[in-house]
Structure to design on (310 residues):
């Protein structure tokens, strides 16, 4: 019997916001992944990197201020660094748990580049706030470089674009590993956004919404299931109010209707719903599931989470 392929998108609750916190938190994610491998699924992992890329960008910026012989690291470099060190912790934790269960399987992290469109309107309307608070003088310097800033909490912070993912350059390598029944970590933080300039891939000053990148990866792999593991057990209508209503299942049509009504928070649940709808409507038989990290196995067995189908 052919194994079902599942792309597992880990939210920021799987990692924490610091090195020690990540080391501790990542164990829960590793247990969830090991359970799915033990249940005979082909597993590909994507993950958030929001706090991590911001931390790296801030650290590299401060370093350049202390020693002006070093330039500020571009967002693309910070994205690559975050993919590498999150993947390092995650693949080692998963490897240990698999070996403890008598499962011998290579776990690999692929530093992934994702093509974005130069003419994506997101570049004219950046919305993603990153980095530390800056003074007015520092903000003016950023503006002179062609960057965008926004006033916030008595200071200024840089904002970058969030263009849509168009293609994944390492997809053939990812497919080869998946077909060899290995476990792959890819598209970390949405992947490194790059612009194609002839034969050169130029890093873009942007970040990609990781839920949309997860859907792009799942579609290109022709996965059976797209599983979002978050900090909530199910999708809810009227979330956080006395009328809160948790949903066991959703059709794509109903999901789109609720999106239009503004039912889902823009920075958390909405991208997951949109990615789920995109995934399940592209091919018959697919499903997306949104559930809690601690309930990964139960989600795939139909005992937890919210299932979204066409």
């Amino acid at each position: 019997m052919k194994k079902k392929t599942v792309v597992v998108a880990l939210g920021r609750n799987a990692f924490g916001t610091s090195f020690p916190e990540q080391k501790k938190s990542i164990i829960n994610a590793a247990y969830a992944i090991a359970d799915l491998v033990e249940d005979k699924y082909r597993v590909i992992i994507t993950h958030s990197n929001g706090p991590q890329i911001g931390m790296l960008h801030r650290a590299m910026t401060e370093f350049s201020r202390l020693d002006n012989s070093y330039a500020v690291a571009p967002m693309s470099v910070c994205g690559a660094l975050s993919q590498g060190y999150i993947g390092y912790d995650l693949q080692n934790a998963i490897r240990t748990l698999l070996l403890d269960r008598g499962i011998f399987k290579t776990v690999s992290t692929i530093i992934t580049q994702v093509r974005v469109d130069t003419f994506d309107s997101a570049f004219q309307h950046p919305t993603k706030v990153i980095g530390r608070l800056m003074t007015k003088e520092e903000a003016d310097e950023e503006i002179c470089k062609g960057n965008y800033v926004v006033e916030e909490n008595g200071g200024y912070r840089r904002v970058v674009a969030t263009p849509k993912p168009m293609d994944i350059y390492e997809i053939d390598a990812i497919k080869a590993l998946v077909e060899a029944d290995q476990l792959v970590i890819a598209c970390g933080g949405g992947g490194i956004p790059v612009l194609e300039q002839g034969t050169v891939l130029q890093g873009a000053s942007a970040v990609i919404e990781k839920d949309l990148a997860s859907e792009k990866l799942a579609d290109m792999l022709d996965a059976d299931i797209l599983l979002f593991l978050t900090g909530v057990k199910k999708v809810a209508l009227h979330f956080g109010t006395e009328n809160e209503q948790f949903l066991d299942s959703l059709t794509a049509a109903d999901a789109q209707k609720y999106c239009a009504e503004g039912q889902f928070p823009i920075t958390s649940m909405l991208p997951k719903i949109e990615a789920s709808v995109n995934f399940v409507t592209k091919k018959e038989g697919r499903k997306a599931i949104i559930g809690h990290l601690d309930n990964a196995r139960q989600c795939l067995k139909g005992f937890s989470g919210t299932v979204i189908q066409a």
Summary: The mean pLDDT is 91.
